Task: inverse folding
């Protein structure tokens, strides 16, 4: 089974900050990685697929990069509506979510 | 607009059974793989099961293999999850999700329902 880790598990940031989250896979998953955003009380939303492709309608301040085992998710300028929990998910061999990173208001 | 509406959740005793259903609309249902993802209260996301667009291929997480069965009816635009021998750690909100790619079980879940709560107690 492929295990996913994320760091940090939580972070505090201010509106306007640049935020970076990392995701590591236990084995090579090529670019088979998604990023989701989940706001409190809501279903998750797909933001990035294939490691770096922006889902339709998602603002360009969100971006993803990486391949193999190490991936990065960045919010270039944090907006008030971006405070949420972010999950990575691999789909190279079945499907596994990371434990999530909670982005809180500083 | 894509809509996914789950139903069938509720309170069940350990060892009991439950069947979740998901009614889909707003897209060509028979062209897309579907899946179930769950989230225990206050916890992260866990993929549970997936089914290919035609229903010929099914996949399960180890935690539910042998106890859960996924199926779909493309004539009725529904996907179901039959759950037996339920355990306390199956307690979660179960989301019905749609795959992004046409006719591929890719695992990029681009549409989610609001979820159905299953409580095993």
Result:
């Amino acid at each position: 089974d492929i295990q996913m880790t994320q760091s940090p598990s939580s972070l505090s940031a201010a509106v306007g900050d640049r935020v970076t989250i990392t995701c590591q896979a236990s084995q090579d998953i090529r670019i088979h990685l998604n990023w989701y955003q989940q706001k409190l009380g809501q279903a998750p939303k797909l933001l990035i697929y294939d490691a770096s492709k922006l889902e339709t309608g998602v603002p360009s301040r969100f971006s993803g990069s990486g391949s193999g085992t190490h991936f990065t998710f960045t919010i270039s300028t944090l907006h008030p509506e971006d405070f949420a929990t972010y999950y990575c998910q691999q789909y190279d061999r079945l499907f596994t979510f990371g434990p999530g990173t909670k982005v809180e208001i500083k | 607009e894509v809509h996914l509406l789950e139903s069938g959740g509720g309170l069940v005793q350990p060892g009991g059974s439950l069947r979740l259903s998901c009614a889909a609309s707003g897209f060509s249902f028979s062209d897309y793989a579907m899946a179930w993802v769950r989230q225990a209260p206050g916890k992260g996301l866990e993929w549970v099961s997936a089914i290919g667009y035609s229903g010929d291929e099914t996949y399960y997480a180890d935690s539910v293999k042998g106890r859960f069965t996924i199926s779909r009816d493309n004539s009725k635009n529904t996907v179901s999850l039959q759950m037996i021998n339920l355990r306390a750690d199956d307690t979660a909100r179960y989301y019905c999700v749609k795959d992004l790619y046409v006719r591929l079980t890719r695992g990029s879940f681009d549409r989610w329902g609001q979820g159905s709560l299953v409580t095993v107690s």
In short: Chain A touches chain B through 22 residues (CB under 8 Å).
